[in-house]
Amino acid sequence: MKTINKNIGFIGSGNMAQAIIGGLLSQKIIKSKNIFSSDPSPQRRNQFSKEFSIKTFSGNVEVVKKSDVIILAVKPQIMEKVLKELKGNITSRHLIISIAAGIPIEFISKWLGDDLKIIRVMPNAPALVKEGISAISPGKNAGPEDLELAKEILNAIGKTVFLEESYLNAVTGLSGSGPAYIFLIIESLIEGGVAAGLPWEISKELVLQTVAGSVSMVTLTGKHPGELKDMVTSPGGTTIAGLKVLENKKLRYALIEAVEAAAKKATYLGKTYSKKNKTK
């Protein structure tokens, strides 16, 4: 794995910043002396300093001045405030990577400058255990080297795909919100096992390995999930009886509609930020 010989600064020290820093350091992709972070909370700064042996700051501008790559890891609600603070301090030498959900590249460039290199990323919750998937979308000024650098950084917390920004709302609805759907399914299956008479811990163990094994079957065989489903389903057997209930309850359509609803919400939020830009 390549090493990164640049200074990386994190604006915001939330869970995702913590996951990325932890991934970079555990895989020895970068040295702790080359990572900086900011956060208004003294407790959070102290935690990052102790856990990662990195230098932390209460102000964002100090991080920008020391960094080549700026990772915007703040909540969408405070992004505008942060960008106002950073305006004039970020230059064309910086690469900006935003992992804030729903914030278009257009919104960031409106505040910081139209000539900057900006990349938007949509990671997901499994990044916290280095099993995430991140969709990477370049702005107009980001070149191949910038994309490769972003990929190296995000690969520290899982896998990456490259997509045009227009697809990121769909990504948000699927892989961004998807872990919550999977957790609900897992929870429901565990409860189903309990309802059928199993102890909760045994039911949990059976469900987790069943889900993990099923994912491995799809990944390793390369077969369509529908084909694998048919392999498990015998005529007149127990599995078809269960599938009949799921189809009658429209589980398939509920999941499809959940992804669509989340994607539409992401689109709405993105348009809200775009409208803010037009009123400036």
UniProtKB/TrEMBL annotation:
Predominant localisation class: cytoplasm
GO cellular component: a single term: cytoplasm
All residue ranges annotated as the Pyrroline-5-carboxylate reductase catalytic N-terminal domain in the record: 8-102
Transmembrane feature ranges: none
E.C. number(s) listed in UniProt: 1.5.1.2
Function text: Catalyzes the reduction of 1-pyrroline-5-carboxylate (PCA) to L-proline.
Family annotation (PANTHER family): PYRROLINE-5-CARBOXYLATE REDUCTASE, PYRROLINE-5-CARBOXYLATE REDUCTASE 3
Species lineage: Bacteria, Candidatus Gottesmaniibacteriota
Keyword Nuclease: no
Stretches of the chain forming a coiled coil according to its record: none
PROSITE patterns from the UniProt entry: P5CR
Listed name of the protein: Pyrroline-5-carboxylate reductase
Superkingdom of this protein's organism: Bacteria
HAMAP family (alphabetical): P5C_reductase
Catalytic activity reported: L-proline + NAD(+) = (S)-1-pyrroline-5-carboxylate + NADH + 2 H(+); L-proline + NADP(+) = (S)-1-pyrroline-5-carboxylate + NADPH + 2 H(+)
All residue ranges annotated as the Pyrroline-5-carboxylate reductase dimerisation domain in the record: 165-267
Family: Belongs to the pyrroline-5-carboxylate reductase family.
Binding residues for NADPH: 60
EC top class named in words: oxidoreductase
Keywords, in A-Z order: Amino-acid biosynthesis, Cytoplasm, NADP, Oxidoreductase, Proline biosynthesis
